[in-house]
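worker-03 picked up job from queue 'complexes'. Input manifest follows; three sequence lines, order preserved.
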Amino acid sequence: MNQHAQPRSGSPLLDHSPETLPAAWYYDPEHFALEMKRIWARQWVNVGRVKDLAPMVLKRIEVAGESLILVKDADGGINCFHNVCRHRGSELCRQAETKLKSRLITCPYHAWSYDLSGRLVRTPFVSDTDDFDKAEHGLFKVNVKLWNGLIFVCLSGNPPDFAKAPDLGSHALDNWPMDDLVTGHVFVKDMACNWKIFWENYNECLHCPGIHPELSEMVPIYSKGYMAANEAPGWTPEDHEQGTVLKAGARTWSMDGTACGPEFPNLSPHERERGQTFVTFYPTGYVVAHVDYVRVVTLRPVGPERTELRAEWLFPEQTLKSPGFDLGKVTDFATMVMLQDGAACEMNQRGLKSSAYSGGRLMPQEFDVHGFQNWVRRQLA
Amino acid sequence: MNQHAQPRSGSPLLDHSPETLPAAWYYDPEHFALEMKRIWARQWVNVGRVKDLAPMVLKRIEVAGESLILVKDADGGINCFHNVCRHRGSELCRQAETKLKSRLITCPYHAWSYDLSGRLVRTPFVSDTDDFDKAEHGLFKVNVKLWNGLIFVCLSGNPPDFAKAPDLGSHALDNWPMDDLVTGHVFVKDMACNWKIFWENYNECLHCPGIHPELSEMVPIYSKGYMAANEAPGWTPEDHEQGTVLKAGARTWSMDGTACGPEFPNLSPHERERGQTFVTFYPTGYVVAHVDYVRVVTLRPVGPERTELRAEWLFPEQTLKSPGFDLGKVTDFATMVMLQDGAACEMNQRGLKSSAYSGGRLMPQEFDVHGFQNWVRRQLA
Amino acid sequence: MNQHAQPRSGSPLLDHSPETLPAAWYYDPEHFALEMKRIWARQWVNVGRVKDLAPMVLKRIEVAGESLILVKDADGGINCFHNVCRHRGSELCRQAETKLKSRLITCPYHAWSYDLSGRLVRTPFVSDTDDFDKAEHGLFKVNVKLWNGLIFVCLSGNPPDFAKAPDLGSHALDNWPMDDLVTGHVFVKDMACNWKIFWENYNECLHCPGIHPELSEMVPIYSKGYMAANEAPGWTPEDHEQGTVLKAGARTWSMDGTACGPEFPNLSPHERERGQTFVTFYPTGYVVAHVDYVRVVTLRPVGPERTELRAEWLFPEQTLKSPGFDLGKVTDFATMVMLQDGAACEMNQRGLKSSAYSGGRLMPQEFDVHGFQNWVRRQLA
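worker-03 finished. Artifact:
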């Protein structure tokens, strides 16, 4: 469900009931291919953390069905290339990771070698010809941007302005030491649903009372089907500070609501009081920052009806090393919520394949679902 | 094989050798989709027995690839709906069966509730808008008919006249207490063949001597490759009573030919003498009624080259409860015959995918295969 | 890798760097279907050895996705038919092999019987009609040719001139007793690559130093990236006898280079000295003949990205029966080389699916890859 909306001035509720996206957009293979091309291959996609990328190692990743390699040189510069040699098309990196023996990326087939900026520098055993110019046969490069310790790549040669991409210009995480956190736990789930189903579930809380009893207790406003206080009838901007907050006594998302270690020192009183800060970046994922740890969730569409969800829990290094640190107390809570949402997404996916159902209607409370669907429509237009 | 044809006046044999259906109709995915639409989504399809449907339970079924729900209200009225909520398209029934807690069908996602006639009655946590009218957002309804204790549904909004559909107007089972029988055994087989291959096999007995040695002994006429006596050279209508009958001493289809319990009291002398009464309803299945029990066979096309066969053996309740009742003696016989036919259907399916074979020829004895193929042609025209 | 090129007069090196085939030709299902039709269904395809075909047995084989049957009559004549009955399209041979009970091929469904030349001779239980003529309903015949003990079939009704097909007119194996050899070992590998990837790998040795360290030691010239001596700078025809030869002391491809039994008596001094003689027949396979044994390699495309490789090691019968004969010493060597090539082919296949890669460039040393690619282009034109 969507916990990311913060109270805004004025009611966000829709004054009408718009139509949903057409049902076929959630399972038609041709439409999926179009979304891969128009959305996933054009937008900035999170492919991991800077800290988890060792220098002088090729790391194989996949974006929009494309096999890519990430490499960090000795100076910390990060490059990304398509995982293919310009000769006869062999892949360059055969495993999840390959340690480099030199400052060269060497194709395992015929040993063509490229420097870490992608220039072709060696073609062993091969004679020269007038019509072949090494300078024209460098690796196919992919754009890279770093933000809050995360690596984003964009397959398009003409990427959107990073700071204007959905929420990537946000300063909401400025008070968290994002670059320095250490990954303490990873949860991966293969969901039998289209990637958009995930975002629609994320963008409303009408389902919270029925699907998330424990979360609705942890965040009391969710038990009313609201994402934020400004959805309540009669809400006024003066009520601002009574926004979305954890229940009395709870500091963070954990099984008992207590923090798992020291709180981050630079948070504002409001960030501390609220207990959860969401930043969302379509289409690829979101971050939720708590007073004691941060969770990063990333999607990877595998097919029209399959999406891989990956969640990483990030901690200060000292927290992980503290005697008595209880990892499960922290990770079990969000894992439970994600499993509940995953099951809901899968039943939504199965249902909308009915030939009788060509599309549905959104309710006033589904204003952020509507916003997401309009964002999708714009990308495809 | 086809045991359903009863002797008719005059020879049924064809006087020529017509062409079969084109081979591609048995494996081409586009043609399969067309048959789903033009045949399976337009005809009455058997989806189970009234007696096996508990009241106040949602039962999930599948017809022509569509997920549907059946529900019997407290008064015994049966309704069928597409298994999809009108809101964002979630499925309504996630398991094979869901017990209702009230006289409402409640969507598990956002708790929209419908009454048992399909009307939308509750949309919790949701504000009203002028452009959304609950009355226009009831469940998608599917037509239902009951016949001889069986439930038939038709996806089409304009279903064919039930009594004129293939054999559904038949009175052949009037002397059996169809409504009251109890299911004693179920056999399900996933066959690697197109659904039409099954019917063609069912509609001739040229294969009986080679494929069914035991059945050909049980029904002597089958050992000559006939389905019925009127196929014999020189047969005249006066020979009528020497129609298809079990071998001397046999009363029913069972391993030793003896009945498994009391015979049904209201059968005619001819029904008793014949020992088997077939009623066929294209495209969905057939019933064969014996003096002591009834078998219902139902097809479900799963793909161009996959068909699920389901056989149910129905008995008087007292037979099942009789001391010494031997279920296996009854069920083993037809199971053996169905496994023999299934293997034949699968080898037929594999063979006709040869690119050299575009179609074959029917022999005079294959008049019912020809009739079935013409029925298919008419539905697709 | 390609070991088949023998030194020719003049340098074979290309004087330019031609483009490769389009990348999509290696994975697009429609292009694969086109190649099946234009290449595999039109060319002569090796389907086994005459010696391995028992008389009076139906042997089921598959060519270009078609199920076929091979049968050798009592006089040794070999016929090949599509594995389908002319009646309703059942397959004739359900297992890998079926022993005949008479000189008839009998369909297991309705017992239609054909003689071993394919003529329809019996249709049991069936009445005659004027419009059905048995003579017009014989089995669908497939062309057969025998060569060096191998059976070749061609699905086309208009097969290419056998002796002019790639290398099938070659006399290179005349000094080996091909008909009499006995199969001592079979190795089958399912490769996740397009069939053309295999041939491209076979047709160059630039990859030998990196991929095949053991083979490059066995055949010293391979360690320089050459397939044959005439690729060396400054090579002249006078150097002819210093062609591709095994390392000093080695007689054959085996783990220690020694022969596994008596050498074939009729080889020329050059055939003996060279230690390896390759004959290649596109698209289906190649033979490599050594002084002591022969290896036959056959491809079968299973899908756009799957190819089955089958290797058979053939020996004089007396070699197999010799005390102390060490089969593994012989078979391990080529098995190792084929596994190395298989892994290279699979990484090539994975890489060229990158959307960034539409095709690459061939180097001067890849003249035989270029020749193969032009052969493919001609077949498709």
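worker-03 released lock.
The longest strand of chain C covers residues 182-191.
The helical segments of chain C are 29-40, 195-202, 208-211, 213-218, 269-274, 317-321, 327-351, 367-380.
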